[in-house]
Amino acid sequence: MKTFKRVLAVVLSLVMVLSLTCTAFAESDYSTPPTERLRFDSKGYFRILQLADCQDGMLPRYGMIEFIKKALDKYKPDLVVFTGDNTTTVDTKLEAKMAIEAIIEPVAAAGVPFTFVFGNHDAENVAKEYHYSVYTQFDNCMAYDAVPEMYGMGTHNLPIYSADGSKIAFNLWMFDSNMYNEEKGGYDHIHEDQLQWYVDASNVLKAQNGGEPVPSMAFQHIVPNEAVDYVRTSDTEVANGYYNSDNGKWYYLDPEYVEKGAVLMEHPCPGTVDSMQMELFEQQGDVLGVFVGHDHVNDYIINTTLKNAKGESIDIVNTPGCTFSSYGNELMRGCRIIDLNEKDPWNYKTEAYTFFDVMGDTEETRMMSYFSREIGWWYVAKVLSFIPEIGETLANGFLKLVYTLAHL
Asked: What are phi and psi of 285, to 5 degrees?
């Protein structure tokens, strides 16, 4: 499949060469905050759609794109947040451009503002600066690089103003959790200068708010190290956990600290180094929770023992991936909705919704899910569909036959 994509990339590049050579992205440090303000609506509500790990290339699975469109239409968010591995490992600028545009265009068409952070895969072969140049060509992009000299790229914050626009009522922190630890191996972490920026910016917001912390939540790709502290083991099978054949143990999240329905299908994969980020959140007192992706098949809310200024837990919230390209699970693949209330800003409501919650559970959507994973058959059907007069009928019949045989 990778070879097929490479060949197709060459063909498409010949078609697109004129547009690409004529499109020159302006040199920029991307450090200018957006002029448009996020704001609670007239009833005091604000809704966020989190999409984790889209993780696909220049020809993303059609099921994921249809899923994004349907989620936007169904939940009508005020902001979309992409929490990293928005693309898979792309090898060329052309692939990066096409992959990013594919996931952003439905959001742009819906007229919904969006922001994003990077994951560990996005910029493995194509620099983050180029990725940023593609994202920022969209007028509804709210992301910016708050301090260009800071480690990583794209760490920033977005205030949400009150319904009447008179004050900052809530704040969103966006952290680049970086990629890989070059010295110690494993995943990277949020670095000291990023954390110092957070403390300084948090203090500015606090001063503007009469000395009181501004209620906030954080978004990043890699899960904080503290998530591992709430994992337990069992010698016998447990619900909503996973089995490790290496040691014969079942792993699950401590029910005392997680909200009902928490699912752990793989071990949390934090950075090799504990950045002490969560402790700083407790020190500053402003963060309600940190929302992550990275671990595609986990869906949980951990109520940690760390407390914010109101004495409530600083939650760690893992959202399942929506990718069909990388690993996933039909029972988990989805998105997360987060609802804020200006009248009760220190609390939030959230729910993860699966692909079938959003799309409906029908034979058509089952086939869409299957052929978004077994994409080769779908490509064959697309070729068949070009046959004059009988193409569409032949393609649909072919897909139906393949699907039926696969599920005998």
From this structure: 80, 5
